[in-house]
Give the backbone structure.
Amino acid sequence: MTAINYNPDVLSCLANLSNDEVFTPPQLCNQILDLLPATIWSDQTARFLDPVCKSGVFLRETAKRLMAGLEEQIPNEQKRANHIFTNQLFGIAITELTSLLSRRSVYCSKTANGKYSVCGAFNDGQGNIRFDRVKHAWDHGRCTFCGASQEEYDRGSELETHAYEFIHTKKPEEIFNMKFDVIVGNPPYQLSDGGFGESSRPIYHLFVEQAKKLNPRYLTMIIPSRWFAGGKGLDQFRDAMLRDHRISHLVDYPKLYDGFPGVKIRGGVSYFLWNRDYSGPCSVQTMWDGEPLGPAMERRLDAYDVLVRRNEGVSILDKVRAYRVGGGPEPTLAERVSSRKPFGLPTNFHGATSPKGLKRPVKLYGSQRISWVNHSDIEQNPGWIDDWKVLMTAVQGTSAAVETKFLSNPIIAGPGEACTETYLVAGRFDNERSARRYAAYLRTRFVRFLVSLRKSTQHANRSVYAFVPDIPLNRDWTDEKLYERYGVIKDEIAFIESIVRPMESNNE
């Protein structure tokens, strides 16, 4: 096709509203719709709902499929279109602007009953794509439905409130007063929670949970993959998703910018198919640069407390967790690594520039610099100060499309030293030799690979170490010795080393 004849799909050219309210490219939309059974497109009784319309792409592409699938049953094109748009396709827009955009995409007119609408059976301008401005339900400064901050979102009528209708009701079935066979969409991802900086709370899970309440035959949504292993307030949602054997397919895009080009969603995105009448293992497929990365693998999602993201990693983790010590499983580093703020000092705390004049000075590792404080200034875990310690940064990640380190280089902190919240105390020891062996262990590809299975964002808190064995420090551990200990075979080693780059000692 020559450039002069090229007529691009306008929905593939739209700029996103934000990193949280992302337009779905038509190509990705169709890959999601491909998960549905082919018979659905020739069912003239099937009803489809997009409860989070932005561009209208899901309803538009569904309409195209139904127009083709129902051609024999309803030969007249206008009658077929009228039937599909009035009886089968329904949407709830997230803002007034997106309601106009969605109607323009679906009906070819910003009003459903407009002159140029492809449907001639509507009597009102909204058609079946509705938008009603609803209010947050404030209680002690928070919305009881979505958790939004009243200070942030209690706005006048001239601004959007981001009180999304679908999740601001206890009875979503009353919005259209009908049953739906398919619910599909790309919900808003998060809202600012009024905290420090860019602090925000996820809300995409609320749309999934609300959709399940409607008990459709099929539910498919594309959402951030952070729920696999982390995310603020997502513990119950993750547990429910992993235990829900009605999820038959899961397609994951771990590479930054891969699912939505140009949109930075840390941890990547994924879409799933929930089938009301299915119960069994889930087909998990990893995508890379828009293409399948190896074959899909059928497995139970609830094998562990988090979702092991890469199919190739499952066999390795199974071997590690099957290793027995004294008749039981090995303990993990989650029992050794400290919680956040190990000495009670926040990230922005800085002491004196030198130890002069201080009583029992303590060297303090902080954000981007070292300072000094009095021993008496440290009220939390003061007994740790005189131990040998290994420190790890609590946040480790880059803006690169692919993370390859997963952990920071360990810092050896000797007696008389402490840290702010910038670091976790990954281990405490009574001698330097053990501390250095432990630091070397943390630098291995093996350890950082196990961390990668739980690390979905830049945060490297204690939970990301929960698959890492707490092994005896009676020797210097190397990757080769660890592979031998756990029976990791050649292909598995190649996989580990393809995603985790080597790390040299920082000579601390």
In short: DSSP finds twelve helices and 22 strands in the chain.
